[in-house]
């Protein structure tokens, strides 16, 4: 399983061919922005815990609730790397996945996915899905971004106020009042096209997640018990991460007719609140 390391005056990053998964990114001078578990497993057919998994063609157990593997097959397979370019210290890595590399009887279509990850003073992720089949298909998709935080119990997320969400833990629909905060397990799918800002007082910084082509934002933190239950997740690591995922899931799934394409884009940026010395 190959991975490419970026180390320029602008940014440090790493991306694996396994799932075309970003594993690391931090602009020069910043602490890591993308989180990777110290218990992550790097093996065939195993999802890497952390980074930015690409969920496709379904999210979780899918709209039927019966799909497997969780979050689809795209994060479990090797994506051929088709291009690597560098400009002014920003490195862009392109991976392409088609039915020739990954097929599943639950998604029996010809498709082409192009993932582009640019590691610079921002992290820009673009995912293009094309229908190369002769029949229409529908899919769910998400860039499952694990963000590194100083202390999950003190962060807040702004930008989702007033958005309706499906609380997956309680299986009920709720409208968000005020910023999102964490004092227990959180697993929510918001209907929202808005950008969000993660405020992190412990690291004295804010992380902005700007997006386009996405009508869902998923917020997840496993908290104490679920962390202990996951073999590839440290018992205390729930404090170190928060997932703010950009996608089109549930009733926001995308339908493409033959020849059509859909693009989703995420731009992650960080601003420090510390006075510069
Ligand atoms: C989130 C889901 O996106 O991913 C959660 O909303 C899930 O329900 C989490 O637990 C992690 O999923 P996985 O398959 O990587 O363990």
Please give a structural write-up.
- It is a single chain.
- The protein is mostly beta strands.
- Helices cover 3% and strands 44% of the residues.
- It has one helix and 21 strands.
- The strands form four sheets. Strands 4, 10, 11, 13, 14, 15, 18 and 19 form an eight-stranded antiparallel β-sheet that branches.
- The N and C termini lie far apart (41 Å).
- The model has no long low-confidence stretch (mean pLDDT 97).
- The structure holds 6-O-phosphono-beta-D-glucopyranose (BG6).
- The site of 6-O-phosphono-beta-D-glucopyranose has 10 residues, from strand 18.
The largest sheet, given as strand count, sense and whether it forms a barrel, is: 8 strands, antiparallel
* 3D shape: globular
Radius of gyration, taken over Cα atoms and rounded to an integer in Å: 18 Å
Q: Give the total of beta strands.
A: 21
Report the bound ligands by name, code or SMILES. 6-O-phosphono-beta-D-glucopyranose
Poorly predicted residue ranges: none
Termini separation: 41 Å
